[in-house]
Amino acid sequence: MVMARINTTQNDIDLRSSCPVACTLDLIGDRWTLLVVRDIFKGKRRYNEFLESAEHFPTNILADRLKRLEAAAVIKKVLYSEHPPRYAYELTNKGLELGKVVEAMYHWGNKNILGKS
Predict the structure, then answer these.
(1) Is residue 2 included in any domain, yes or no?
(2) What 3-state DSSP class applies to 113?
């Protein structure tokens, strides 16, 4: 049962409940989305740069996640070449706030999974 829907210009994101944790997971809770955000924080901006990540994004998944993040106003496209049209991706203010979550996950994983301090 869909409790709510995030209305966007490109697509809608269905939310399962009114719980903020569940709503956040509906947007970023898959295995790829936060890796895109992580890569932008690390300086990657262009589609081909994301494809060079160690996790080897499938192209269809990468394209979908970029569209979802843009639709949710976490990232924005910036035209960097007109002929042919090519875009880079940047974090919005909403995306920059998400960086705190990514950083916390980094530190938690480093300590509790990789055993590093």
Answers:
(1) no
(2) coil
Chain segment 21-79, per-residue pLDDT in tens = 998 999 999 999 999 999 999 999 999 999 999 999 999 999 999 999 999 999 999 99
Q: Using alpha carbons, list the distances in angstroms from residue 8 to 24, 55, 68, 74.
A: 16, 28, 9, 12
The domain in which residue 91 lies consists of: 31-112
Across 76-93, b (16+ Cβ under 10 Å) vs e yields: eeeeeeeeeeebbbebee
Q: pLDDT digits over 54-66, tens only?
A: 999 999 999 999 9
**With contact defined as beta carbons under 8 Å apart, do 42 and 32 qualify?**
no
Residue 9 within a domain: no
Q: Return the CATH number at 78.
A: 1.10.10.10
Peptide bond into 84 cis (omega under 30): yes
**Alpha carbon distance 70, 97 (integer Å):** 15
Angle at 74 between CA 18 and CA 112, to 5 degrees: 75
The answer to the question of residue 22 being in a domain is no
**What is the value of pTM for the model shown?**
0.83
